[in-house]
Amino acid sequence: MPLLSVDELTVTFGGQGRKSNAVNGVSFDVDQGQVIGLVGESGCGKSVTSLALMGLLPRKGVEVGGRADFDGVNLLTMSQNEIRDMRGSQLAMIFQDPLSSLNPVIPIGIQVTEILQRHRGLKGEPARKEAAALLEKVGIPDPTRRLKEYPHQMSGGMRQRALIAMAVACAPRLLIADEPTTALDVTIQAQILELLKELVDQEGTALLMITHDLGVVAGLCDQVNVLYAGKVVESAGRRELFKHPTHPYTHGLLGSIPRLDAPRGEALSPIRGSINDRIAWADGCAFAPRCDRYELDCLSGPPGLSHPRAADHQVRCLHPVPQSTQPTEEVPA
Amino acid sequence: MSLQATTKANKVDRLAELTAQSETSAGVSLWREAYRRLKRSKMAIIGLVIIALFVLVAVVGPWVAPHSPSAQLWRGEVFPNKGLFVGPRAGNWFGLDNLGRDEFSRVIVGARQTLLVGVISMLIGLVIGAAVGALSGAAATLGGKVGQRVDTVIMRFTDIMLALPSLLLAVSIAAVMGQSLTTVMVAVGVVQIPTFARLLRGSMLAQGGSDYVLAAKALGVRKRRIALTQIMPNSLSPVIVQATLSLATAIIEAAALSYLGLGNPDPSVPEWGVMLAQAQRFFDNAPMMSVYPAVGIIITALGFTLLGEAMREALDPKLRG
Amino acid sequence: MSLLEVDGVKVHFPVKKGILFDRTVGHVYAVDGVSFQVEAGQTYGLVGESGCGKTTLGRAVLRLVDITEGSVVLDGTDLAKLPEEEMRTFRRRLQMVFQDPLGSLNPRQNIESILSEGMAAHGIGSNQDERREKIKTILAKVGLPANSLARYPHEFSGGQRQRIGIARALVLEPDVIICDEPVSALDVSIQAQVINLLEELQESLGLTYVVIAHDLAVVRHISDVIGVMYLGALVEEAASDKLYEAPRHPYTKALMSAVPVPDPEVEDLRARILLTGDLPSPANPPAGCRFHTRCPWKQETRCATERPELTDDGTGHKVACHWTAEIEAGTVSRTGGEVVGAVREELDDRLPVEPTL
């Protein structure tokens, strides 16, 4: 049984009159020790998905549907108190902006020991020692001195490390990382990604990685889910997905990214239009207005999942990208 | 061939149908958008209704008042010294005051003076304050080193003005100018100057550091034009809100000054603040005499405050969808 | 002679303190002696991480910040010495595209007004009708619908707003356009649209670009020559392909290795150089080589005391490092940092035996 099994998650904002679906039926599984990627551009519903799982969406004006079974218990129907106990001990989350996720007027040390006290009952000197050990584990040099520092005295990379230390303080079984490196410089990003890899390897924590950066996914995730307009449009293993992108959106995304190792002068093939050019899933494929492979039957209701290539490579498309146009390693003879 | 063409047209049409967005929203400026939001706000509607009633009363008051505000209507039944007042009765709905004048008529006629004091003193503060603030803000953002020095001098001056308690400042002005309605308006207006000046300057400074101002500089747009077309229009929202809100405070402050005896000395021209001041002497025996003008002041101030708050929400760029 | 020649530019911001009157207590050395040349019709890419001074340098080239020292020569005219009014009229030839497409457009002006602003300032077009015609041509060029004229910035999508920003620069027919992070605020699929647009416009109009960005992949894609900045100075400059194939400065190597490539096959075989420590403050830059506090190849001598000059190795590849030759020859070894495989080990069936750098 997977550690987390998300089934047809829907999130709808706004009450009567103007409703907007942020998440439109997202399903995926996370196994122990696995790194699962949720990839998509702004407005695809990836962050809302993570907030829904953590129970961090406002209760008013938001409707959450579907199931999210964590260790057999549905996270979505938990009471405020139950989910609060889960957060920190079983589930933990790190955010894009470490500065606004830390309390600016309290030293890092107290923020870490507070968590240790609440979830592990540690107090006083043992708590301080454990906090220092945690900071050391996430690669913060001179941890005892750093415990006394305020968030603004640390660099962006150090703050993100401190946040990770707080997230893993109680050895959570699932860590959700929402764009954890987007606000950081690329050399710092490399350090943080390395740290996350180590944590997954050593602690066996499952990691749900939410990002817009396909490069980050390529080096980190076991299974990748590509989101578009609140639905998973393609899901496959890391290598399979990048080698055989089959949904026109995934294919287009990969064609849009300038690659460091591509020869200069190789033209990019962008996806036309913007996320605003979309139709409701109920009417058909939301990507149809931007899609080069669009046909009339794309407008006959929401397309289902199919696996044109392999059982574990799911694609939500009636006209997936055929083999011949796919980028392959082999040079044609 | 033609069949293919039809299916293609079909495809495109069907898609266009489903993606069609309402084109009515195109070309709507932020001001118009704010106005639309304002129209939807209940708070704004209530505020506007109150203000409209108040203005209506102020304009037509003298003609619709059942009695002259200075006519003594008593027929030997009022003895304020003995604590006997004429309460509400037919023809004198709010009763008579200590001099036997119809309280209802006085409240209605007094609205005009109150409105005049509020609007004129707000305008004094707004016009002078905005001019000072605009000068300071423009000097600080576009005037280079000299401009920054000019800005520093102006701001230190407004700091001094802000440091004085506003009522004390108003009383001092009144002391110099003597007792009159003009004094009250000038005093209340002058007190508002530094508020408007600082507000506009601060807003201009924030806008002056924005990318679109930098873009205008990079385009080679002249400084004066940058100040007028780029910085100013984007800095006005908080000033507009403050102007509305300060109508409320101006009315209250004017009432306070009148209460202190600095208002219009002419007893034939009723004004809510003066009425309140006079009524308090008889508060024990005729509390309602204080209540009528006080409620008038409170409701009017509430109207302007509601409108001001609604405008703040409507103009807030953070709520921009 | 190159179209744009930047020579020894320094931008030092005074740090001021004081209650009533400010006095200068120090300087932030945002840009500290940068020289480069841009040839007509080419793209020069400036790459570096946050705090390296690339944005300030870009603004110095446009003289939107005061140049403390040095010269910026466009087509024979030194901008650093132009009087204010002459500088204002000269701006027509040097334009800028901003990072934040929404923030760089006045929210209260419609598109026609935004695009007319520059033309009016430089007396292009005798009346508004003439200007409108010109604007319509440019809008078509940047791929915006003709009915955009009466609309306001908030009514467009992010990519469209950046097209408006590009159109605003184009209407003045400048010689050089400085693009400061032109795509970093946009979604991936939109980034490609804008990059392609910039390239098409360069081809059809013969534009010269200076592209400033933190994304090495974007810069490499679009630039002919790339300069790598670290803490206010250039550490390496080379032709785009050359820089990618054989980066010579330790910082460039680390930067390059840190950029993720969206391809697991490549990622699995790459090694990553992890730097230690944080970027020093530009208000108090380290003596000697600016990078020596984080450099994995820091040596006992020279690095901490002597500031390396950007020197040409004879092939147009310029590096500012005392030990480049020795590092390449393998005679000095790595003293710090960490080299890791890009992928978690147990996942990986093809881990490189020896990471290649």
UniProtKB/TrEMBL annotation, chain A:
Q: Name one Pfam family in it.
A: ABC_tran
| Domain ABC transporter: start-end pairs | 4-254
What GO CC terms are in its UniProt record?
Answer: plasma membrane
Membrane topology per record: Peripheral membrane protein
Record keyword Signal present: no
Q: Which UniProt keyword terms apply here?
A: ATP-binding, Cell membrane, Membrane, Nucleotide-binding, Transport
A single GO BP: peptide transport
Where is the protein localized? Cell membrane
Primary site of residence? membrane
Molecular function GO labels: ATP binding; ATP hydrolysis activity
Assigned protein family: Belongs to the ABC transporter superfamily.
Q: How is this protein named in the record?
A: Peptide/nickel transport system ATP-binding protein
Q: Which organism is it from?
A: Streptomyces candidus
TrEMBL record, chain B:
ABC transmembrane type-1 domain ranges (all copies):
111-308
Transmembrane stretches in the record are: 44-65, 115-142, 154-175, 181-200, 239-262, 291-311
PROSITE patterns, alphabetically? ABC_TM1 (PS50928)
Q: Cell membrane: present as a keyword of the record? A: yes
Species lineage: Bacteria, Bacillati, Actinomycetota, Actinomycetes, Kitasatosporales
Where's it mainly located?
Answer: membrane
Swiss-Prot/TrEMBL keywords? Cell membrane, Membrane, Transmembrane, Transmembrane helix, Transport
Q: What is this protein called?
A: Peptide/nickel transport system permease protein
Recorded hits in PANTHER family, A to Z, give: OLIGOPEPTIDE TRANSPORT SYSTEM PERMEASE PROTEIN APPC (PTHR43386), PEPTIDE ABC TRANSPORTER PERMEASE PROTEIN (PTHR43386:SF25)
Q: Where is this protein found?
A: Cell membrane
Q: Name one GO biological process term.
A: transmembrane transport
Whose protein is this, by species? Streptomyces candidus
TrEMBL record, chain C:
Recorded hits in InterPro entries, A to Z, give: AAA+_ATPase (IPR003593), ABC_transp_ATP-bind (IPR050319), ABC_transporter-like_ATP-bd (IPR003439), ABC_transporter-like_CS (IPR017871), Oligopep_ABC_C (IPR013563), P-loop_NTPase (IPR027417)
What would you give as a GO molecular function for this chain, any one? ATP hydrolysis activity
Q: Is rRNA processing one of the keywords?
A: no
- BP GO terms, sorted: peptide transport; transmembrane transport
Indicate yes or no for the key word Transferase: no
Residue ranges annotated for the ABC transporter domain, each copy included: 15-256
Q: Which SMART domains match?
A: AAA
The protein's matches in CDD domains, at most eight in alphabetical order, are given as: ABC_NikE_OppD_transporters
Keywords, alphabetical: ATP-binding, Nucleotide-binding, Transport
Report the domain of life of the source organism: Bacteria
- Per the similarity annotation, which family is this? Belongs to the ABC transporter superfamily.
The name this protein carries in UniProt is Peptide/nickel transport system ATP-binding protein
